[in-house]
Amino acid sequence: MDLDRRALLKLGLATTSGVVCAPRALSASPTKTPPPDSAGVLVDTTLCIGCRKCEEACNRRNRLPRGVESFSDRDVLRSFRRPSATAFTVVNRFPGSPSADQVGVAETYAKVQCMHCLRPSCVSACIVGALTKTPDGAVVYNSTICIGCRYCQIACPFEVPAYEFNEALAPRVRKCEFCVDRAAGTGANPACAASCPTEALVFGRRADVLAMAKDRLKRRPDRYLNHVYGEAEVGGTSWLYLTGRPVTEIGLLDLPDTPPPQLTEAIQHGIFRYGVIPIAFYGLLAALMWRNRPTPPPGPPGPVVAEERPGAPGGAPRGPAGGGR
Ligand code: SF4
Ligand code: SF4
Ligand code: SF4
Q: Partners of 139 in the beta sheet?
């Protein structure tokens, strides 16, 4: 194996930084039970009319670039969209009634954004702690320490974080931050919920909006499927959905209840326990250094000591012991 010193150094830095950062990643997951005042939003897809007011309010609130189409242009609903670096929330349209009791309604609309998971995979995956879960439920991002590895993008089970690929100098991860300052701590609605004309979005304490969702399920079994999406999926999310049809028919992903960090952290704990990685790395390093140790280059021939034969031509003259000057 031909591994030069520079390659060894790179490998060492990568491995060492992984080891140094591992404890941060392991400690990143918040507890499964949200704090009592943790915020939430109930999205009732049977009430959404696809007006895109939420998209517009989010765009304005986050000072995002405006597209060429106006937000009243419903042609964009022809294509399925995902949240992006310039649109933290999008509404999609699906053919078919929102629920069994809305037969006169031909289409279903569903808004998507970051779900602000209770056990966020993005937080767990971020090796520098650029993503954190705040006590009020929001998962927020610190661009000043982000190293652009995009592990959060890979980790998110809802495929939410977007990356500013068009920014050459300082690209950021972008996503909904739950309007985290919410009018400087007054608890005011996020912009999207405040702008919704049909109350398809209801903001409040997660515990309260969950209770509201369950109450609607009890009162309107003809309208809703008996499930609150986000109550348990991936360990629970701050945004909760009521639907009148299977979530997979309206662009939401069918996900297990197990929080992904539970699995990944178990693997990380196993790998990093007892310093297996650093010991293995430095063992490999030592082996490679031994294998690639320098061999002395062939130098100029040394003085030839002629056989000492008295009287022989070219023979060294005999002198006093130890050589004379
Ligand atoms: S939806 Fe994705 S980006 Fe949002 S908190 Fe959950 S894991 Fe993080
Ligand atoms: S909470 Fe704020 S950032 Fe998130 S989708 Fe709504 S308006 Fe946009
Ligand atoms: S503002 Fe409300 S009704 Fe309009 S698209 Fe958004 S969630 Fe639906």
A: 133
Q: Do residues 308 and 315 touch, judged by C-beta distance below 8 A? A: yes
The residues, any chain, with a CB within 8 Å of residue 175's CB and separated by 6 or more, are 83, 88, 113, 114, 141, 160, 161, 162
Ligand 3 in contact with 93 (CB < 6 A)?
Answer: no
**What does the pLDDT look like over 291-318, one tens digit per residue?**
777 666 665 555 544 444 444 444 444 4
User: 138 is written with which tokens?
Assistant: 């929001």
Ligand 3 pocket test: pick from 46, 52, 81, 94 the residue with the most ligand atoms within 8 Å of its Cβ: 52
The CA 274 to ligand 1 mean position distance, Å, reads 31
Q: If we measure between CA atoms, which residue out of 250, 140, 165 comes closest to residue 200?
A: 250
Domain ranges of the chain: 1-29+259-292, 30-258
Statement: 30-258 belongs to CATH 3.30.70.20: yes
pTM of the model: 0.75
287 CA → ligand 1 middle, Å? 42
